[in-house]
Write a structure and sequence with these properties.
178 residues, mainly beta, AOC barrel-like, 8 strands, elongated
């Protein structure tokens, strides 16, 4: 009787291990709503008669909107370049981002957007890869990047130091894991 009970427990354990392995090996596909509150800092310098360029970084916590509300899911850090037309205020921006989940797994993403300086920009976010449980991730969606505040410190004989805050929202970020 004891041997039978041990064999049944062992069989149940093997089934659970195989089922868990199959679940981690199965592909996953979903669409999520992502929200980031960022802080940025960098330098802005004149790069033409009517153009300035910001070079810096943005970082902040990543939230995913679920049935139970916003869930903090990690931290996003993006080196970014923003080109600004000084006469018309139009901007073009791009960033290469790393999103680090709380367990250390990472997702890499590229962002490109255009819009009006200090109003914000709309564009695309493309998932380009990942590590650990996000290895092989792909997908993307539309993104909105909005500033909230900006502080410029003029520098003598060089670029101005700039700091700011804002938000990034991807309302329908589609991803696929192999």
């Amino acid at each position: 009787m004891r041997a039978l009970r041990t064999a049944l427990c062992l069989a149940a354990a093997i089934v659970m291990i195989v089922a868990g392995h199959a679940r981690t090996q199965a592909s996953e596909e979903a669409t999520v709503k992502v929200f980031v509150i960022w802080q940025g800092e960098g330098r802005t310098l004149l790069t033409g008669p009517h153009q300035a360029t910001f070079v810096g970084s943005l970082s902040g916590p990543v939230y995913v909107d679920t049935e139970n509300g916003l869930i903090r899911s990690g931290l996003m850090t993006c080196p970014a370049i923003l080109e600004l037309g000084l006469e018309d205020g139009k901007e073009q921006a791009r960033g290469r981002c790393t999103i680090t989940a709380q367990d250390g797994a990472q997702i890499y993403a590229d962002i490109e957007c255009s819009g009006v300086y200090m109003v914000g920009c709309n564009g695309d976010l493309k998932l380009t890869g990942g590590t650990k449980r996000f290895e092989g991730i792909s997908g993307g969606g539309k993104v909105m990047v909005r500033p909230d505040s900006r502080e410029i410190t003029p520098m003598r004989n060089g670029p101005a130091k700039e700091e700011g805050t804002g938000s990034l929202e991807a309302r329908e970020l589609h991803y696929k894991l192999p």
